[in-house]
Design goal:
Elements (H helix, E strand, L loop, with lengths): L5 E5 L6 H12 L3 E3 H9 L4 H11 L6 H11 L9 E4 L5 H14 L3 E7 L2 H9 L1 E3 L6 E3 L27 H24 L3 E5 L4 H12 L7
Parallel strand pairs: 1-3, 1-4, 2-3, 4-7
Antiparallel strand pairs: 5-6
Helix pairs in contact: 1-8, 2-3, 4-5, 6-7
Length: 223
């Protein structure tokens, strides 16, 4: 038996955080709790909290930390989070990390913070080199996983690959710099309490997964 935990995965865009969260969910039954999914759910819900979030988002303002935390607290109270779960997108700041401490104490689950660290030059290539097929959604990368025929999908030879609007070199640079500036205090928050683990995210996803699994223990949703 392993102690249930709250796993916080920290990683820049392109670091593979989503890939690792999905692997933990599919192999160990550890649910991935994504703030992005929660915000999308709120758009179609008719609860007091959902209406409050909808009003703020409609005004173009950022959802306050306290309200985001309330969403996380509500979501993690569901049965699938009775044991270990992975938080994706929360906390993003040291202030939100302090809020998470309250949930940790309330649930009696320690926080395990894991940074997936990838050199900036690799992140830039992962993002700017990304291309997708408009027909089937297959993802390629001109630097790491190029299609057989330049610019066209292997599965749909007539489908010209497309690049996301925010994957241009200029926008990627801004995204990564913003992430680094905003995340430094969060990393220091967990580092100062001796709870930050760092894994090399430039390796094969399977190698990264094995290290993360070792760090958190073989916890699963039925523990």
């Amino acid at each position: 038996m392993f102690m249930s935990k709250i796993i916080v995965l920290i990683g820049a865009p392109g670091a593979g955080k989503g890939t690792q969260a999905r692997l933990l969910e599919s192999r160990l039954g550890i649910p991935q709790i994504s703030t992005g999914d929660m915000f999308r759910e709120m758009k179609n819900s008719d609860t007091r909290l959902a209406r409050e979030v909808q009003e703020i988002m409609a005004s173009g303002k950022l959802v306050p930390d306290a309200l985001t935390y309330e969403m996380v607290r509500e979501r993690t109270a569901r049965p699938d989070c009775r044991a270990t779960f992975v938080l994706d997108g929360f906390p993003r700041t040291a202030v939100q990390a302090e809020m998470l401490e309250s949930l940790s104490d309330e649930l009696g689950k320690p926080v395990v913070a894991i940074q997936i660290d990838v050199p900036m030059e690799i992140l830039e290539k992962r993002l700017t080199g990304r291309r997708s097929c408009p027909e089937c959604g297959e993802i390629y990368n001109i630097f790491f996983k190029a299609p057989k025929s330049e610019g066209y999908c292997d599965l749909h030879p007539r489908a010209e690959l497309v690049q996301r609007a925010d994957d241009t070199e200029e926008k990627v640079k801004v995204r990564l710099e913003t992430y680094e500036d905003n995340t430094k205090p969060l990393l220091e928050y967990y580092r100062s309490s001796g709870r930050l683990e760092t894994v090399d995210g430039s390796r094969d996803p399977e190698e990264i997964y094995k290290e993360i699994e070792s760090l958190i223990g073989s916890a699963n949703a039925t523990v």
